[in-house]
DNA sequence: GTGCGAAGGTAATACGTATGACGTGGCGGC
DNA sequence: GCCGCCACGTCATACGTATTACCTTCGCAC
């Protein structure tokens, strides 16, 4: 009968009649030929019998690494970031790494009292420098859709191309006065959107909002009740766009008749409301970033890919768009029996 | 200048001119009066100066615990589970615990090759027994909306009450033939929904579907093209309901005129499409479960709360319902400057 | 002066693993 | 017969922390 404390490699050694070092050598599989097959069999049998699993804490201490990656994002509740997580976690798992999520501290610049575990690397959505301080030491880092001019490797979306397509689309429809429901987060990708918009549209009014339905509703209401009401609302995120859509409806405005609305990300929300939006391959972002980080950990120089961002035209701008039924980016479904 | 390797407590000791044990005693704060204030000051100053952070791996090994909790869920991309995560992570952080997510392995019953870190406890959505095997040892566990008759403590929703309200609502509207878009997952809470439905509605036809937009669309299409088409579709999840809604629209059916549709969870999706749904306080589920787990870890017996599940009536069943603007359960928004 | 407790510190150890430094037989070559 | 080498194991150690047991010094009562 097993004791109430998990068996250690020493226990396995005793059971197999060998030394602890032998157990370690056999089970790590890194020492081919170092131990006779006969002995190896005994060790493996004993380990199996006792249900031995190496103690991760001890291994981490000994090896000085944890095979754990931290994903730093504003919030996991945004479907976009959830998809990023999925992509990253999948690649991580394939390479024997774990992924822990760390969502931004409530007070920006607050002390970074991250997870208890040490980490080998970090995937981070743009964040204040201050947040990065307080780490035990500089850590290999890949940024997510962040400043490509920065020093850290990064995986980007072609935001500028997407904004070109988007503003072109709106211009074709005759929209010249545009309201921008901007994400109230100091993140490169959002600044990029604002800049691209300002560069191409002469007449932009902006309202900032935290990324949520309610704040989007409020910001859009402010924009739509101006005396010089914009004819189109560009939102930095699908969630904000849903808030904007509801705000328009609540004001008795027709979409897209009275006001066109666009989102960003192309999560299921956009599909549901037939929102014109920019499709961002979020899952791929996570996966590519994780691959880059693995490169970094292996001493290789990771590529800095730019992933395509595709304009998806739906009824919230163009009433004649076909009724789509599965055009959004949906994470691969999982079933368990 | 700090070396390229992070400072250890020994380094701090050397810098402060004391022994390593003293450093540990001072910084842990568990030995009031054991060290003179004068010495303590020196130690703290040295630690600050060197930027000392204790090595988590060493601490975990020494203490035999990790202050890390694992959250086991089918997928993080479902907004419902993301909210659960948020609630759990918040409580965990308040108590100095970390939370790691583990999503179900692709093959059910596959080996549980969980995270590399050892964990102190587990929060789990219902899962196959087999998945629990392969852990290093039995681990304190709180279940999420799972069989209350089971041995593990659990936090539940009042699903039965919700289904009573829901079926009552549909009956009031004259619906007697109901299609059930059931989640194709072997999870207690979904079985519970099916059972409650069958018990109260004489005429139910069921189609099973993995939880996703596409599968919901397909399952609903099958139901709506039957010769004996149901007048209402009850979906186990908002995502499925969105698929069902689109399926109805694609078939040229009016919602709720030709077919009523209900979801489950009350995520933003339901709000967006004006779906009648059952509001589940997901964030609270995560938070309460985590509190229960902390009880367990402290040797206390956790309560087994039953959280209310509230029927939210919107236009997908009742055209006269008011146009809601913020009635869904939205996680607290975060902003970073 | 002796005993003795308290205050304030240090040495030593254990946690469980991985690995570099050592045996130790056996066998072939000269 | 001796040396060297190979095959196969074991010993010892280090990773960085928390804690137990110990040691020294000092003040004070008797």
UniProtKB/TrEMBL annotation, chains A, B:
<dbReference type="Pfam" id="PF00356">
    <property type="entry name" value="LacI"/>
</dbReference>
<dbReference type="InterPro" id="IPR000843">
    <property type="entry name" value="HTH_LacI"/>
</dbReference>
<keyword id="KW-0238">DNA-binding</keyword>
<dbReference type="InterPro" id="IPR028082">
    <property type="entry name" value="Peripla_BP_I"/>
</dbReference>
<dbReference type="InterPro" id="IPR010982">
    <property type="entry name" value="Lambda_DNA-bd_dom_sf"/>
</dbReference>
<feature type="region of interest" description="Disordered">
    <location>
        <begin position="317"/>
        <end position="337"/>
    </location>
</feature>
<protein>
    <submittedName>
        <fullName>LacI family DNA-binding transcriptional regulator</fullName>
    </submittedName>
</protein>
<dbReference type="Pfam" id="PF13377">
    <property type="entry name" value="Peripla_BP_3"/>
</dbReference>
<dbReference type="InterPro" id="IPR046335">
    <property type="entry name" value="LacI/GalR-like_sensor"/>
</dbReference>
<keyword id="KW-0804">Transcription</keyword>
<feature type="domain" description="HTH lacI-type">
    <location>
        <begin position="7"/>
        <end position="63"/>
    </location>
</feature>
<keyword id="KW-0805">Transcription regulation</keyword>
<dbReference type="GO" id="GO:0003677">
    <property type="term" value="F:DNA binding"/>
</dbReference>
């Amino acid at each position: 009968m097993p004791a109430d404390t998990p068996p250690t490699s020493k226990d396995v050694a005793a059971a197999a009649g060998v030394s602890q070092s032998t157990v370690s050598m056999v089970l790590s599989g890194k020492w081919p030929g170092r131990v006779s097959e006969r002995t190896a069999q005994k060790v493996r049998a004993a380990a199996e019998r006792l249900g031995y699993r190496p103690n991760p804490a001890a291994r981490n201490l000994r090896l000085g690494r944890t095979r754990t990656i931290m994903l730093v994002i504003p919030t996991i509740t945004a479907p976009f970031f959830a998809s990023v997580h999925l992509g990253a976690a999948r690649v991580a798992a394939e390479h024997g790494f774990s992924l822990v999520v760390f969502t931004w501290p409530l007070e920006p610049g607050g002390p970074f009292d991250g997870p208890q575990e040490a980490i080998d690397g970090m995937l981070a959505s743009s964040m204040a420098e201050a947040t990065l301080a307080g780490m035990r030491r500089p850590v290999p880092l890949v940024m997510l859709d962040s400043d490509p001019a920065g020093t850290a490797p990064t995986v980007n979306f072609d935001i500028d191309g997407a904004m070109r397509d988007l503003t072109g689309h709106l211009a074709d429809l005759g929209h010249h006065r545009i309201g921008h429901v901007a994400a109230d987060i100091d993140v490169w990708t959002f600044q990029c959107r604002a800049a691209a918009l300002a560069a191409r549209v002469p007449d932009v009014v902006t309202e900032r909002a935290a990324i949520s339905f309610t704040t989007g509703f409020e910001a859009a209401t402010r924009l739509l009740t101006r005396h010089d009401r914009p004819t189109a609302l560009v939102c930095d995120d699908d969630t904000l766009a849903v808030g904007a859509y509801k705000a328009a409806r609540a004001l008795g405005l027709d979409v897209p008749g009275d006001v066109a609305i666009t989102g960003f990300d192309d999560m299921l929300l956009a599909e549901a409301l037939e929102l014109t939006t920019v499709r961002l391959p979020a899952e791929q972002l996570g996966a590519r970033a994780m691959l880059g980080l693995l490169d970094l950990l292996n001493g290789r120089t990771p590529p800095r890919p730019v992933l395509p961002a595709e304009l998806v035209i739906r009824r919230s701008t163009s009433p004649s768009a076909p009724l789509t039924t599965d055009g959004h980016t949906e994470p691969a479904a999982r079933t368990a029996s």
